[in-house]
């Protein structure tokens, strides 16, 4: 696992390692508008997770997920705030993300 000081450094390195797509969280899966793709929880894997704390406010914390999918041999990233998704996503998606919180 790599260690990064900033989100920018993590995203740059992940991009160099082939995680080139940008995923967005939806209520039931991940969406990639770049290529008009939608992935359900069973269609992707979380390979790496990096957490970043806000310097002055812990509420400004974020997490970067390195995502892969055999659906087209795709790799990309999801950037999200801590806990932001908890009440807005399906139980299946929440469980997938929580597995990698610990």
From TrEMBL:
* Superkingdom, natural source: Bacteria
Q: What is this protein called?
A: Phosphoribosylpyrophosphate synthetase
């Amino acid at each position: 696992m790599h260690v990064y000081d900033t989100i920018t450094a993590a995203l740059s390195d992940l991009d160099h390692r082939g995680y080139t797509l940008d995923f967005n969280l939806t209520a039931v899966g991940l969406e990639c508008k770049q290529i008009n793709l939608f992935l359900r929880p069973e269609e992707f894997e979380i390979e790496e997770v990096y957490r970043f704390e806000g310097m002055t406010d812990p509420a400004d914390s974020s997490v970067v997920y390195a995502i892969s999918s055999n659906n087209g041999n795709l790799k990309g990233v999801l950037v999200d705030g801590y806990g932001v998704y908890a009440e807005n996503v399906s139980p299946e998606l929440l469980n997938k993300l929580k597995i990698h919180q610990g």
